[in-house]
Amino acid sequence: MARDAPAALVAFAEDWGRHPSSTQHLLSRLARRRNVIWVNSIGLRRPSLSLADMGRLADKALRMTGLKQAGAGRAEVERPERLSVLAPRAVPWPGSQLAEAFNRASLSAQLRAEMARRGISRPILWTSLPTALSVLGALGERAAVYYCGDDFSGLAGVDHAPVSGMERRLASRVDLILACSQPLCEKFAAERTVLLPHGVDLELFAKPAARPSDLPDAPNIAGYYGGLSPWLDFDALVRAARSLPDWRFVFVGPVRCDVGRLAAEPNVALLGEKPHAALPGYVQHWSVSLLPFLDTAQIRASNPLKLREYLAVGAPIVAPTFDAMKPYADLIEMVDYGGDYAAAILRAAADRGRDSLRRAAVAHESWDARAAALEELLARFDDR
Fold it and tell me: 202-361 in CATH: which number?
C-alpha cells in the first residue's frame, strides 16, 4: 500500500500549455496527491535559422530568464496547485556529448534548487522525452519511468538518429517503461514495459455543446480537427471533396504544411486553430469524423488522442487501418491508405444507428481511469 505522502515526480515533457497532451492529462491528475515539478521541453532536434525556430528559441529564452512565465500557454487543462513548471536551462542539441554534459550539470543544479525550495527529496523521475537522459541518476531519484507516446525514429521534426540513440540508452536504465500503443511496447524489454493506452475527457466530449457560429450551415459535413500536417493524405481528401460536391469538408487546426490544393476546393473550409475545450462543439455537429492519415512509421505506432474523443461523441468515423483502430474496428468505417474516402464517408453517414455503441466503447477509458491505473504502477516505488 502506498504511503499517505506518495513520492513526488520530476517530469520531463513538452512545454506546459502548448496543448493538452496525454502526459499533461495524466500528471495533472497525479498532482492531486503527488507534488510534481514539470520541466518544459529541451528540444528533440538542433535548431535551424528558420523564423519558426528562432521564434521558439526566443520564447524559451524568455521563459528561462523568467521574463515570461514558464507555464504560460493555451492549454485548457488547469495547472494543479501541487504542480510547478520549470523552464530548463539547457542546450537543445541531441547527440552532442558536450551538450549532454552541460545539461546534466545545469539541469541537476536547477532541479535540486527547485526540489529544495519545495521540500522534495528522492523523487520519481518521469520522462516523456529521451532528452531527460542527461539527468538520469543525478537527482537522487528512487526510480525512473519512461513514458513513450511516440515513435521517435519516425516522428516528424526530430533528429531521428541521435534521439533514437538517446532513447535506447534511456530505456536500458529506467525501472519502468509505459507505452501508449502495442507497436511502441514491442520496441522495449517486455519484462519492464506496460501498455498504457490513451484516455479521453468524457465530461468534455460527451456533454452536449452548442454549434459554433463558424461551422458551415450544411446538412452533410465531414470534419477533422488537429494539425494540418504532412502525415495527412491530402490527395485522398481532395479526391473525396471533388467526388462529394454536396458535402462540406471542415478542418479545424493549425496549418503546418502546404494545403493550397485542398483549400482551393469550393466545398472545403479551413477554420483555423481552436481552444481544446471548443472542439466538442464542432465534432458533435458534423456528420462524419475523419482520421485521414498517410501510411507512415509515425502513424503506424501512434494512438491518436482524437480517436477516443471522436468515439465519445458517437458520430461515425472514417479511418485507415492501423494498430490503434483494432479494438474499435467494428465501429469504424475503414478505408485503405490512399483509398476511396468518398465511398467510406457515405457508408459511415448511414451508420448513425450505432452512435450509442461508439460512446459505450470508451465509457470506461477516461483519463481518471488511466491515471488510477498509473498510480497503481507507481505505488511500487513509493517505499523505496
Answer: 3.40.50.2000
Q: In angstroms, rounded to a whole number, what is the distance separating the alpha carbons of residues 201 and 29? A: 12
Cα 100 to Cα 36, 134, 135, 238, 307, distances in angstroms: 24, 6, 9, 45, 36
pLDDT at 43: 75
Q: Which of 266, 276, 283 is nearest to 208 (CA)?
A: 283
pLDDT in tens, 224-248: 999 999 999 999 999 999 999 999 9
Q: What is the pLDDT of residues 202-220, one digit of tens each?
A: 999 999 999 999 999 999 9
Going by C-alpha positions, the residue among 272, 352, 280, 278 that lies closest to residue 309 is 280
Q: Is 228 left (phi over 0), alpha (psi -120 to 50) or beta?
A: beta
- How far apart are the C-alpha atoms of 86 and 101, rounded to whole Å? 20
- The residues spanned by each domain of the chain are 9-199+366-381, 202-361
Q: Cα dist. 206→216, 281, 283, 286, 314 in Å?
A: 22, 10, 11, 15, 8
Q: How far apart are CA 118 and CA 37, in angstroms?
A: 9
The distance of Cα 70 from the centroid of its chain, to the nearest Å, equals: 19
At 245-266, the pLDDT tens digits run 999 999 999 999 999 999 999 9
Q: What is the pTM of this model?
A: 0.89
| Topology match between the domains 9-199+366-381 and 202-361 | yes
Distance of CA 16 to the CA centre of its chain: 12
Pick the CATH number of 9-199+366-381 from 1.10.3710.10, 1.20.140.10, 3.30.1330.80, 3.40.50.2000: 3.40.50.2000
Distance CA(351)–CA(75), nearest Å, equals 33
Which grid coordinates are listed for 320? 485507415
